[in-house]
Write a structure and sequence with these properties.
The complex is a heterodimer of chains A (112) and B (115).
Chain A lengths: L4 E3 L2 E5 L4 E6 L6 E7 L6 E6 L5 E4 L2 E5 L5 E6 L8 E8 L7 E3 L3 E6 L1
Parallel strand pairs in A: 2-11
Antiparallel strand pairs in A: 1-3, 3-8, 4-5, 4-9, 6-7, 7-8, 9-10, 9-11
Chain B lengths: L3 E4 L2 E4 L5 E7 L6 E7 L5 E8 L5 E2 L8 E7 L2 E6 L8 E9 L4 E4 L3 E5 L1
The chains are: A mainly beta (112), B mainly beta (115).
C-alpha cells in the first residue's frame, strides 16, 4: 500500500509570513494533486503536477513535484487569513483505476 | 460552477434504516467514481471505486454488503448505507474522474448522522 506523509499536520502563523507544506513518500506517483478543503465541504482542486521537477504557481502558492515523483511541496508566500483551511496532498497510483492516496492533511491557520 | 454534486447534503436517520446518497458528475461522463469517508479532523479514506456498468471495488476492511454502490450511468453513482448504526455517522464524499485529464473532482459531501 502506498503511503503519503504530509507535514506539518497543524500550522498557525501570522499574516504576512511564508510557509511550506511537505508531502513525502517512498513510492512513485503518476501525478500529485493538491486540494484545499473548507469545513463541511468537499476538497477543491488547487493544482495537479505530473512531471518530475515540475513547478506550478497559483498567485502566492507555489507547488513543486520532486524529480523522482515521490514528493511534493506547497509554498505560500505572504500568507493571508483567507488562506486558512485544510490542505491535502493526494498521489495518483501509477497503475489501475488512478486511486488517490491522501496525506494526513495540514490544518493551516493564518492569524490577522 | 460545481463539477460534481451530491444529494442530500445532510441526512439524519434512525438506527437500522438505510440511507441512499447520490453523486452526479455534471460536466463530464465519468466511467470511474470514488467514494470516501472522512472523520472529524482527519483526512479522506477511500471506501470503494465505483465502475460504470460493473461491480464496485471495495478497499480492505469496507463491508460491501453494508455500503452498496451502484453506478448505473456515466453521470450517477449511488452509495446506500444499509441498516445504519451510530458508528456509520460520518462525512461521505464522492469524486468523479475526468477521463481526459485523469483528475478527480470532488462533491460537496454528505453529512450522515445516525441516531
Amino acid at each position: 500500500t502506498q503511503l503519503l506523509e504530509q507535514s506539518p499536520q497543524f500550522l498557525s502563523i501570522q499574516e504576512g509570513e511564508n510557509l511550506t507544506v511537505y508531502c513525502n513518500s517512498s513510492s512513485v506517483f503518476s501525478s500529485l494533486q493538491w486540494y484545499r478543503q473548507e469545513p463541511g465541504e468537499g476538497p477543491v482542486l488547487l493544482v495537479t503536477v505530473v512531471t518530475g521537477g515540475e513547478v506550478k504557481k497559483l498567485k502566492r502558492l507555489t507547488f513543486q513535484f520532486g524529480d523522482a515523483r515521490k514528493d511534493s511541496s506547497l509554498h505560500i508566500t505572504a500568507a493571508q487569513p483567507g488562506d486558512t483551511g485544510l490542505y491535502l496532498c493526494a498521489g495518483a497510483e501509477i497503475q489501475g483505476a488512478q486511486k488517490l492516496v491522501f496525506g494526513q492533511g495540514t490544518r493551516l491557520t493564518i492569524n490577522p | 460552477g460545481a463539477v460534481v454534486s451530491q444529494h442530500p447534503s445532510r441526512v439524519i436517520c434512525k438506527s437500522g434504516t438505510s440511507v441512499k446518497i447520490e453523486c452526479r458528475s455534471l460536466d463530464f461522463q465519468a466511467t470511474t467514481m470514488f467514494w470516501y469517508r472522512q472523520f472529524p479532523k482527519q483526512s479522506l479514506m477511500l471506501m470503494a471505486t465505483s465502475n460504470e456498468g460493473s461491480k464496485a471495488t471495495y478497499e480492505q476492511g469496507v463491508e460491501k454488503d453494508k455500503f452498496l454502490i451502484n453506478h448505473a450511468s456515466l453521470t450517477l453513482s449511488t452509495l446506500t448505507v444499509t441498516s445504519a448504526h451510530p458508528e456509520d455517522s460520518s462525512f461521505y464524499i464522492c469524486s468523479a474522474e475526468n477521463p481526459f485529464t485523469d483528475t478527480q473532482y470532488f462533491g460537496p459531501g454528505t453529512r450522515l448522522t445516525v441516531l
